[in-house]
Amino acid sequence: VAEPFRAQRTQILRLSGDIDENNWESVADRITDQVRSGAERLDLTGVTHFGAAGVRAVLVARESLPDGAMLELRCGPAVHRVMRVCGLDDMPGLVVTRSGAAG
Amino acid sequence: MTAEAQSSFVHAALIVDSDDAVIERLVPILRESIDAGLPVLMVVSEGLERLVRAELGPLGDRLEWSAPAAFYQRLGFAYEEFRRYLEQQHALGRRVHVVAEPDVPTTADPSSPVDRAAAYLSYEAVCNEAYATFGCPVTCVWDSRRHPTLTIESVRSLHNHEITASGRHPNEGHVPAMAYLTRRNDIPLPRPSAAIGLDLTVSSLDELPSVRQVVRDWSGDESFTDDAIDDVLIAVTEIVTNGLIHGVPPVRLRAWSHTGTLVLQIDDLGGRALPATAGYFAPPPKQSSGRGLWLARQLADVVTIHSTVGLTSVRLHFPYDVTHRHPEN
User: Shortest Cα distance from B288 to chain A (angstroms)?
Assistant: First the structure.
C-alpha cells in the first residue's frame, strides 16, 4: 500500500484505505500533525480496514490534543464496532460517531 | 481490582432439576432482594419468567425483565455488554442483582464445529474477576434437565457461590479462571471438520492486504455479507499479525466452512503457550498495545487456542447467524 490515505489541511482530516501494522505509525503521525494544526474531526468512513493498529494510531494522536479539545471520529459500521469494542467511545477527548455509509 | 472486591463478589450458581426447585430456591432469593430494596434484573427465558411471576404475583412487576436474546449473541459481545451494563450501574452508584439464565445450546451439537457451551463457560470463569468491582451480585440459573451432566459439573465449579435448598453458600470447590482456562488450552484442537477451503502461508506483514483480499473473496463465496466479512477480516488480521510479530513465521492460515460456520485457523511455529486468560479482559483504555486477541475474542463467536512444541494454533469460529447479528451500536 504505497499511499494508504490522503489528508486535507482543513479542520477535517479524511483517511481512506487500510490501517494495519504496516502503516499505523505514519497514520498516527499524520493525525497528530493535523490535531496540532487544529483539526477537530477525523473522517474514517473511507477506511477499509481498522483493527488494533488503527486504535493505537488514534490513541497516540490523542495524546497531542490540546487541553479541553475534542476530536470527533466519524466511522463506518465496522470501524465504529472496533472503536466501541476497544472503549474509544467512552474516552475523554474523543467523540465517536457512526455514519450509515459502509466503512 | 482488589482481592477484597473479588472475594466479596457473589457469583452464584442455582442449579435446578424441577419447577419446584426454581420456586423453592430462586423465589426466596428474589423476595430477599426486593425486601432489601435491591433492584433485580431478570435476564431469563419466557418459561422461567412465567414460573416466577405466577409465584410472586404483583411483586413480579417490581423486577426488571429482559429477554436473553438481548444479551446472548456472540459470546464475547454478550459478556462485554453485560460487563458494561454492570459498570454503568456502578458508575450511577446503583447496585443491581442480576439473575441470568444462559441461553446456550442445551445439548452438545454433533454437527457443530465447536462446543459453544464449553466456550460460554470460559466466560463464566473470567467474570468472577471481570465483574467483581461493580458490587452487583449475579445469580446464574442452570436447569440440569436441559444440560449435560458434564456441563452442570463445570457450572458448579466455576461459580464462587451456590444456591441450594438451604440457601446461598460459598463454593468450596470453586475453580479459578486461570486453572480452568489453562485446562481448556491443553485440549488439542480437533482435526478440521470439513474440506479445507483456504490454505495460505504468510511470511511478512506486507502480505496482510492480500491475505485480507483472499479471505474476503472466500467469505463472500460462503454467503457472508460485507459487514460480517469485515469482522472476520479484523479478527484474522489480528491473529496473523500476532503470529508474525510475537510467534515464529511463517504463519499458516487455513479456513473451512462447516454447517454455516466459517472456521479459520492460524498457526505459527513458535509453540509458545499464550497466557490462559489472554483476550478475556478489556485492555485499559490508555494501553497502547495488547488489543489483538481481545478484538478477536469479541468479533468471533468462539476462539480456541492450543500450543504444542513448535506450533501455536488459534482457531476462530464465525457462525453465520450470530456473525450477522450486530448489536448496533
Answer: 5
Say how far apart CA B74 and CA B245 lie, in whole Å: 28
Lowest mean pLDDT among A64-68, B101-105, B188-192: B101-105
What does pTM read for this prediction? 0.91
Residue with cell string 417490581: B62
Q: What local confidence, expressed as pLDDT, does residue B6 receive?
A: 58
At B5, the pLDDT band (50, 70, 90 cuts) reads low
User: What is the predicted ipTM?
Assistant: 0.88
Q: How far is CA A68 from CA A12, A40, A62, A71, in A?
A: 18, 12, 12, 10
Average pLDDT, chain A: 88
Per-residue cell: B321: 447467524
Do the Cβ atoms of A86 and B283 come within 8 Å? yes
Q: Which residues pair with B40 in a beta bridge?
A: B97
Nearest Cα neighbor of B289 from B278, B301, B302 is B278
The answer for B 178-237 residues in CB contact with A (under 8 A) is 205-206, 208-209, 212, 226-227, 230-231, 233-234, 237
User: Which of A18, A60, A82 has its CB closest to that of B209?
Assistant: A18
Alpha helices in chain B (DSSP H): 3-8, 19-21, 27-35, 46-56, 75-91, 116-130, 149-158, 177-186, 208-221, 226-245, 292-299, 320-323
Which residue type does B240 have? V
Residue of A nearest to B231 (CA): A78
Q: Is A83 on the interface with B (CB under 8 A)?
A: no
For residue A70, give Cα distances in angstroms to A23, A42, A58, B91, B274.
24, 11, 13, 23, 37
Query: Which residues in B126-153 are b (16+ Cβ under 10 Å) and which e?
Result: bbbbbbbebbbbbbbbbbbeebeeebbe
Confidence (pLDDT) at B100 = 93
Over 50: is that where the pLDDT of B1 sits? no
DSSP H or E stretch at residue A84:
helix A77-85
Q: Is the pLDDT of residue A55 over 90?
A: yes
Asked if B237's CB is within 8 angstroms of A49's CB, the reply is yes
pLDDT at B77: 87
